[in-house]
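New to this. Comment on this protein:
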Amino acid sequence: MAMLYKLFGFLDKLKQSKIAYAHCDVPCGIYDPHLAQLAAHTVIRMNMLISELPPIVPSMAPEQRKEALHKLSRYIATKEESAELCKKEIRILWGDYFKPEHLQKYPQLHELVWKAMKLGSKVRQEINMQASEELLEAVNKIADIFWQTKGKETARAKADFYPTGRETVYPKL
């Protein structure tokens, strides 16, 4: 295996490869708002888990404190990664999928994308359930428009992993 790496390294020095560029982030029109929606749900769930943690106080037993801090740091990291994933997926739809004719038909789309991006940043910076729920709603509205551009009727389903049943937009089959 090491020999192959040496051979390719040598060939690359003789004639450097050209960099390949793709016309979009996803090959051949495979777009779906599902990952953005899942990421927004994850942000909400992490906020829920953070709020359920006991207060971390100096009087805690060292092992309890260590466990609580460990959970808190994992929840925050997951929340921030998911918020960034949500923003990334919205950027891909915005930059690669949506076209001028979509903006003409759905003039609110620009404002929705802008709002989702701002909310994505806000939920990274804060432990804020209201902003997290607003992010999910903005992403669901974008998903609804996305599916309408594909000629698909949409529906809303309550996510059963929340006590209050937050919703997700999906295409009717």
The chain has one domain: 31-171. The beta strands are 154-158, 167-171. The longest helix spans residues 62-97. The mean pLDDT is 88.
